[in-house]
Amino acid sequence: MTNIPVPGVPAPPVASEPPSVPTGSDQVAAQFIAALNTAIALIPAFEPKHPETLKFVKRYVSFGDELIASAISAVENNAELAATKKFDVEKARATYQFMIAFRPAIDIVDTLDTNLKFTWQARKAEAIADALRLFAAAKGLGHDPASADVAAHAEIMKRDLKRSRKATKAGKTPAGKTPAPDPTKPPVTQ
User: Cα separation of 167 and 164, whole Å?
Assistant: First the structure.
């Protein structure tokens, strides 16, 4: 069978198969992930979140950090408390030092999380805005009977033109958000 283009009939869509050769973005992401895994390996006694330990952690994590320092001091300065062997001073001191040392790392990782997500969203938003402008142009050009193939592409884009249900529910804009402008209409000026 030959692939002869027919005027007014769009070419069949290209299947979205995974690329056989990694893209530049794939390579950068792989390097970034490898660096993160290397960094994670540096964390002593790294403990991933797990449902079995989560209840225990939630029960005790809300207490003030100062309690650890007070308990260390109490055991070191009172032989009777030290004799109970209910508190491992060296383990607690290492934990307290870990908490102080890694607080800036947590802040950096939190900032990275926020900004990486925003970078992802900003790049998507830019591509979507460009796609909407192209859709508007395709709709306009598609009105010309000589541009039937453009009209067909406009219909395909129209089919795929939908918002995430998370972003909008039943056609409503989330509270506090400004609805995206319709690229097919001129901007309103006051």
Answer: 5
pLDDT of residue 181: 54
pLDDT, the chain, mean: 85
Q: How large a percentage of the chain has pLDDT more than 70?
A: 76
Q: Map out the domains of the chain as residue ranges.
A: 61-160
Angle between helices 148-160 and 89-141 (to 10 degrees): 150
Q: What is the pLDDT of residue 176?
A: 47
The predicted pLDDT at position 167 comes to 58
Instruction: Return d(Cα 170, Cα 86) in angstroms, integer.
Output: 58
Does the pLDDT of residue 65 top 80, yes or no? yes
Q: What is the rounded distance in angstroms from the CA atom of residue 48 to the CA atom of residue 39?
A: 14
Give all strands (DSSP E) within 7-106, no chain letters.
none
- Return the DSSP state at 5: -
In Å, the largest CA–CA distance within the chain is 95
- Give the pTM: 0.66
Q: Helix or strand or coil: residue 154? A: helix
| Whole-number Å distance between alpha carbons of 134 and 183 | 9
10 Å CB burial of residue 100 (0-12, 13-18, 19+) is: exposed
Q: Are 10 and 152 within 8 A, CB to CB? A: yes
Token pair for residue 75?
């055991």
